[in-house]
Amino acid sequence: MTEAARKLAPQGGELELRDVASGYGAITVVKGVSLRVRPGEIVALLGKNGMGKTTTLKTILGMVPLRGGSIAVDGVSVAGLTPTKLASLGVGYAPQEQPLFQDMTIRDNLRLAVASDRRLPAALDAGFGYFPFLKDRLAQRAGTLSGGEQKMLILARALMLKPRLLLIDEISEGLQPSVIDRIASVLLSERDAGGASILIVEQNLDFALRVADRWAVLKLGEIDDEGPAEPQARDRVLRHLSV
Ligand SMILES: Nc1ncnc2c1ncn2[C@@H]1O[C@H](COP(=O)(O)OP(=O)(O)OP(=O)(O)O)[C@@H](O)[C@H]1O
């Protein structure tokens, strides 16, 4: 992030996880994760399938209960808050699973994300700024969009609310390179414009290292390694993902 962008950045957006533990029933999936996303930063949480990446995001969002440790946004504990309350505090989410109402139009999918219809026009304008194709397709049912268009709609829906902090789960999954490029350029412009701090969960290492400032690898619910997203990081991360 440039110095100019830092000055433009909205106050806050810092996420801090300390020794976070969570899981399902008798199983503890996330085992003492400590992780920080600084204001204006993009951090990539990487790891093989089933290591607890999505569970970590869902724990931050209050969708999976916190069993230990602490989670703070801008220094304020968010443990126990509902996803709706977190959204009202400026925490956005672009989920991987069942993210859209397939039989509803693009407009109605976007409309459901805003707190009141009064805020819809400004939110839609912001969304079109990220992905202009949405403007001409508002009446189209979301289920008839291509996979890549659906991912862009999910991201537009999260970004149009101007979150302080945005959590993005495997946005690049199954996408062709041209769509991945468009998404990468939106995330990089968001960072350069001093927008949301972003935590991405990713399997696509090249995409992750392209957009992120820093990365962390999650292995069996623990942070196994972390570092800056510099070119030489690729081999180091690959070693974690291949063993
Ligand atoms: N609702 C659930 N109930 C019980 N176990 C679950 C539930 N959701 C996930 N798990 C288990 O928790 C573990 C971690 O899953 P999680 O989805 O967090 O992994 P991940 O790193 O995001 O993997 P992937 O890349 O495959 O999405 C897995 O063993 C998974 O089977």
From TrEMBL:
Annotated family: Belongs to the ABC transporter superfamily.
PANTHER family: ABC TRANSPORTER ATP-BINDING PROTEIN, HIGH-AFFINITY BRANCHED-CHAIN AMINO ACID TRANSPORT ATP-BINDING PROTEIN LIVF
SUPFAM superfamilies noted in UniProt: P-loop containing nucleoside triphosphate hydrolases
Keywords: Amino-acid transport, ATP-binding, Nucleotide-binding, Transport
Name of the protein in its database record: ABC transporter ATP-binding protein
Ranges of residues in domain ABC transporter: 15-241
Record Pfam families: ABC_tran
Sample GO molecular function, one term: ATP binding
Species this protein is from: Methylopila henanensis
